[in-house]
Amino acid sequence: MGENIDGDQAFRSTQLEGRDREMTWGGALSFLRRNYTRDLDEADIVVTGICFDMATSHRPGARFGPRAIRAASTGLAELDAYPFGFDPFDTLRVADYGDCYLDFGRPDDMPARIEAHADEIIASNTMMMSLGGDHYITYPILKAHYKKFGKLSLIHFDAHSDTWDDEPKRMDHGSMFLRALREGIIDPETSVQIGIRTHNSKTHGFTILGAPWVHREGIPAVIDVIREVVGNNTAYLTFDIDCLDPSFAPGTGTPVSGGLTTAQALEAIRGLGEFNIVGMDVVEVSPTYDVSEVTALAAATIAHDFICVQAVKAGAVKQVYGRE
What is the set of domains in the chain, with CATH numbers? Predict the structure, then answer.
C-alpha cells in the first residue's frame, strides 16, 4: 500500500511507488491509477496518451482510445498482477503524463507535436509507453527514440505490415514503417512482424510471422524467432490491437479475421523480458466499435503486463508462475 489515501490517488498521492484503495467504478482515470505528473525525476516508466486518428484509412475513433484504455485499466490496478504474483508498483515508479496536446485546426503540425512530446519524455531517461491513437503515431515516436538510441529493431504485432508505398510527408497509418525504414530509423533485417494477415507483395526485409503460422507453431516459437532476429539489439515494441481477431478486439478501425487471441498476445508480451526494448505503444483502440469494452481491456492488459515484465527485468522481484 502507499500513503493510506482512499480514492483519487492519481491527483492526491505524493509518490509514484505503491498503491492505495480505489473504487473500480469511480475515481480519477489515470492509467492503472498512477499519479498524473509531468515531474519525471523519479519515474521509471511514463505512460502518455496520443489522441490522434487523422491517418486512418477506414473507421475513425482511435483518438478516444487513450481514454478508453485508462478506464479499462482500473480493475487491473486493484490486485497483484496475474500470473506474476506481485505488485509491480512496489518495484517500478510509473507516472501518467497525460495526453499530447494536438490542435485540431492544425493537422499538419500534429506529427511534429507528437515527436516533440516524445522528446520531452525520453529526455528524462524514462521509458515511454504510449496509448494510441491510430498507428501513424508510432512514426514520430520512433523518430524521437532514434535521436536518443540510434537505429532500432522493431517488434511489431499487427494484422497489417504498414509498409505499403506512399508519398513523402503523407499521413497514413499503412505506410509509416516503410518511411521509417527508408530514413534509417529502423532496421528491417533485425525486425519481426507478428500476426500479419493482409497481403503485401514486398517484405522489405522484415521477418514476417503471419497469423496462420503463429496459430500452427505457437507463441514459444514466436519468441524463438524474435530471439534469433532481434537478439540483443535496441528494440521498440508496437502493438496494433487489430493483431487480435475481431472476436477478441472488435473496437478497432480496420479489423481483419483470423487474428491472434488475447491469450496468445499476453503470452507473447510476457515472453519479451529478455529483449532490450526501450519504448512501447499499443494503438488503434476505437471504442465506438467496441463491445463491453473488451478491446480496451485487452489493450490495457497488454500494457499492464509489459510493465510487469519490466518489473521482473529490474531484478527486484521474481516471476512467480504456477502451472499455467
Answer: 16-314 (3.40.800.10)
SS3 239: strand
Which three cell numbers mark 148? 536518443
DSSP 273-318: TTSEEEEEEEE---GGG-STTHHHHHHHHHHHHHHHHHHHHHTSS-
Helix H or strand E segment including 48: strand 45-50
Q: What order do you get walking across the sheet with 276-283 strand by strand?
A: 35-36, 94-99, 45-50, 127-132, 276-283, 234-240, 153-157, 192-196, 207-210
Report the C-alpha gap between 29 and 24 in whole angstroms.
10
H-type alpha helices, the chain: 9-12, 65-72, 110-122, 138-149, 176-182, 211-217, 219-229, 262-270, 294-314
Cα-trace Rg, the chain: 18
CA distance 164 to 172: 10
Phi–psi pair at 114, nearest 5 degrees: -65, -45
Rounded to whole angstroms, how far apart are CA atoms 71 and 31? 8
pTM: 0.92
Task: Name the pairing type of β-strands 234-240 and 276-283.
Answer: parallel
Residue 146 φ/ψ region, left for φ over 0, alpha for ψ in the -120 to 50 degree band, beta for the rest: alpha
pLDDT in tens, 91-146: 899 999 999 999 999 989 999 999 999 999 999 999 999 999 999 999 999 999 99
